């Protein structure tokens, strides 16, 4: 399962690349700006993301910029629960192949902060820890231990809708919702509503060690059932992952871009 989760988390890196790569000059010099009036703004954004692909993979944007690397992409923990029949925790995951993502389609309206993005990743390999209790067909799966997985042809559809929020910046740098008495500067700050994420995966292979408390026979049967029915296995997990990661990623984006204005992210001219 953890490969599914990590591929959704990869959406965070992909969308952040698309948004942050066109952000203000306070960001790394490797980032390219795109004008909101550019009739080919989609191509500009895709080019900007490709331009920093190596930096994203290595997490290296120079001194003063702390950016998580994509190779491998590290995920500390995710918890999922749907009643008593489905409980899962995944820890210390390393995801390999995230930097190979491709933006297949992008519809962009920068002035309205509206973006629809479809991306694909040919292959993701994942290692980490799991704790799982779920029912798959006739089998009650349960266990706790190491997990390895490989996903092929993962597609992520991401819907982003934003808005601007007017604050007042006082001369001393304090930002408030009111008017500062010692001189103010009205700015349109960028905020995003909850992102919509949809995930499709063509195929996957998994190895969960220590299923059924290490029973070798039941463990082998459990892994065979998972891999023979990987479509059912993935379909059970995806809805909860989409909801949780949509909420989490929206918080990440809004926090990262909390001081960005619309003119800084998408200037009228470059």
What would you say this structure looks like, in words?
By secondary structure, the chain is of the alpha+beta class. Helices cover 30% and strands 40% of the residues. The chain has six helices and eight strands, in the order αααββββββββααα. Strands 1, 2, 3, 4, 5, 6, 7 and 8 form an eight-stranded antiparallel beta sheet that branches. Helix 1 packs parallel to helix 5 and helix 4 (216-228) crosses helix 5 (230-256). The longest helix is centred in the last third of the chain and has 27 residues, at 230-256. It starts with a helix and ends in a 5-residue tail after the last helix. Residues 1-12, 20-26 and 169-183 have low confidence and may be disordered.
Order of helices and strands: HHHEEEEEEEEHHH
Q: First CA to last CA: what distance? A: 44 Å
Number of helices: 6
Q: Total strand count, please?
A: 8
Helix/strand-derived class? alpha+beta
Low-confidence stretches: 1-12, 20-26, 169-183
């Amino acid at each position: 399962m953890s490969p599914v989760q990590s591929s959704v988390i990869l959406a965070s890196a992909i969308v952040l690349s698309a948004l942050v790569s066109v952000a203000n000059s306070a960001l790394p010099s490797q980032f390219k700006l795109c004008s909101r009036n550019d009739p080919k703004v989609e191509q500009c954004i895709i080019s900007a993301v490709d331009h920093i692909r190596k930096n994203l993979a290595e997490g290296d944007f120079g001194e003063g910029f702390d950016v998580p690397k994509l190779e491998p992409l590290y995920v500390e923990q995710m918890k999922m629960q749907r009643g008593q029949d489905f409980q899962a925790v995944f820890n210390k995951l390393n995801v390999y192949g995230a930097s190979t993502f491709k933006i297949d389609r992008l519809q962009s309206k920068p002035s309205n902060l509206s973006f629809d993005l479809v991306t694909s990743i040919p292959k993701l390999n994942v290692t980490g820890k799991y704790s799982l209790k779920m029912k798959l067909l006739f089998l009650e799966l349960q266990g706790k231990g190491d997990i390895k997985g490989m996903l092929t042809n993962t597609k992520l559809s991401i819907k982003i809708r934003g808005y601007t929020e007017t604050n007042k910046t006082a001369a001393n740098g304090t930002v408030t919702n009111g008017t500062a008495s010692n001189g103010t500067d009205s700015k349109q700050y960028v905020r995003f509503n909850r992102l919509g994420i949809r995930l499709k995966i063509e195929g996957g292979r998994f190895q969960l060690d220590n299923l059924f408390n290490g029973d070798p026979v039941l463990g082998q049967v459990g892994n065979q059932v998972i891999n023979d029915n990987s479509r059912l296995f993935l379909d059970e997990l995806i809805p909860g992952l989409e909801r949780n990661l949509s909420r989490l990623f929206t918080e990440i984006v809004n926090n990262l871009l909390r001081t960005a204005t619309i003119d800084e992210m998408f200037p009228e001219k470059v």
